[in-house]
């Protein structure tokens, strides 16, 4: 049976494109009147510049929601990227071996049932992009369209989300989704990041995260409405000591797991509070 190439593109709102890279990561291209913005760069299987040139001829900036290899893998295809300083080490340089390990894992999860790709497709570029830093409250003005940056730590120390003011979309990277990993920062930090999103809850209707169309399931839908409140409930119950904690795994490593509503949070039981 014929398979899909390394990406699928779906217009999720006017001039707003979700790019699903082989079921491994999602990127988003937001196009205004004068500029565009690419959110994340996937694992780097795809010639992103050619793909974006098919979608817009406007100049554009590139924002990385966080430093994990499945979001920065394609970053070296660009001259300049924005990332939060706390995650900046991910580009010095990009760990392509970690990208390859992740791609192999996703292939085992079924990505190549649907997509024609392999680790050979990873573009291992050595020249790293110039790095500019994201900060809370930063604005990207695309002309008739504004995107606001919110610092949403927890999944990583430097995780950021963006709000598309016109289309009322939250682009949350890996900071607020149904399978939330909090393995590297504390639950207290994750709760602070989720509360930062909560403070902007009235500004968005949809939440697109960094992994739509996971592995061999090529869907492009936003997160359920209850994800934010479910995730906050889980963090609060863990910190209060009232959560029912199970043992599980997060991408192959042992983790403590709490499930509530639509959300499952995997975390390190020795890293609940900051101090
Ligand atoms: Zn991540």
Summarize the structure in words.
It is a single chain. The protein is α/β, with parallel strands linked by helices and 275 residues long. It has a single domain (7-267), classed as Metallo-beta-lactamase, Chain A, CATH 3.60.15. The chain has six helices and 16 strands. The chain has helices at 48-55, 69-72, 96-108, 111-114, 187-198, 227-240, and strands spanning 7-13, 16-21, 25-31, 36-39, 60-63, 80-83, 130-133, 139-141, 146-151, 160-164, 169-173, 179-182, 206-209, 246-250, 253-260, 263-267. The strands form four sheets. A five-stranded mixed beta sheet has the order 1-2-3-4-5, with no helix packed on it. A five-stranded mixed beta sheet has the order 8-9-10-11-13. The protein has a four-stranded mixed beta sheet with strand order 12-16-15-14. Helix 5 runs antiparallel to helix 6. It starts with 6 loop residues before the first strand and ends in an 8-residue tail after the last strand. It binds zinc ion. Residues 66, 68, 155, 174 line the site of zinc ion (ZN).
Short overview:
This protein has helices spanning 48-55, 69-72, 96-108, 111-114, 187-198, 227-240; strands at 7-13, 16-21, 25-31, 36-39, 60-63, 80-83, 130-133, 139-141, 146-151, 160-164, 169-173, 179-182, 206-209, 246-250, 253-260, 263-267. With 275 residues, it is of the alpha/beta class. Residues 66, 68, 155, 174 line the site of zinc ion.
């Amino acid at each position: 049976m014929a398979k899909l190439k390394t990406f699928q593109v779906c217009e999720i709102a006017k001039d707003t494109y979700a790019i699903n890279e082989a079921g491994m990561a999602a990127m988003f291209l937001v196009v205004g009147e004068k500029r565009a913005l690419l959110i994340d760069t996937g694992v780097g299987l795809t010639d992103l510049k050619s793909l974006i040139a098919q979608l817009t001829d406007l100049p554009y900036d590139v924002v990385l929601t966080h430093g994990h290899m499945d979001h920065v893998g394609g970053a070296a295809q660009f001259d300049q990227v924005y990332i939060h300083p706390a995650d900046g080490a991910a580009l010095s340089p990009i760990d392509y071996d970690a990208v390859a390990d992740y791609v192999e894992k996703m292939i085992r999860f079924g990505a190549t049932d649907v997509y024609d790709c392999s680790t050979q497709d990873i573009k291992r570029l050595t020249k790293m992009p110039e790095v500019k830093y994201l900060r809370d409250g930063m604005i990207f003005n695309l002309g008739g369209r504004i995107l606001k940056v919110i610092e949403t730590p927890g999944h990583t120390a430097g995780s950021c989300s963006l709000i598309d003011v016109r289309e009322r979309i939250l682009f949350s990277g890996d900071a607020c989704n149904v399978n939330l990993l909090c393995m590297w920062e504390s639950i207290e930090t994750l709760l602070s990041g989720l509360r930062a999103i909560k403070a902007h809850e009235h500004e968005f209707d949809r939440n697109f995260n960094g992994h739509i169309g996971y592995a061999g399931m090529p869907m492009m839908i936003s997160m359920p409405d209850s994800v934010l409140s479910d995730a906050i409930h889980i963090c609060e119950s863990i910190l209060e000591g009232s959560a029912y904690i199970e043992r599980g795994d997060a991408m192959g490593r042992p983790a403590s797991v709490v499930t509530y509503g639509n959300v499952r949070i995997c975390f390190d039981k020795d890293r609940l509070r900051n101090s």
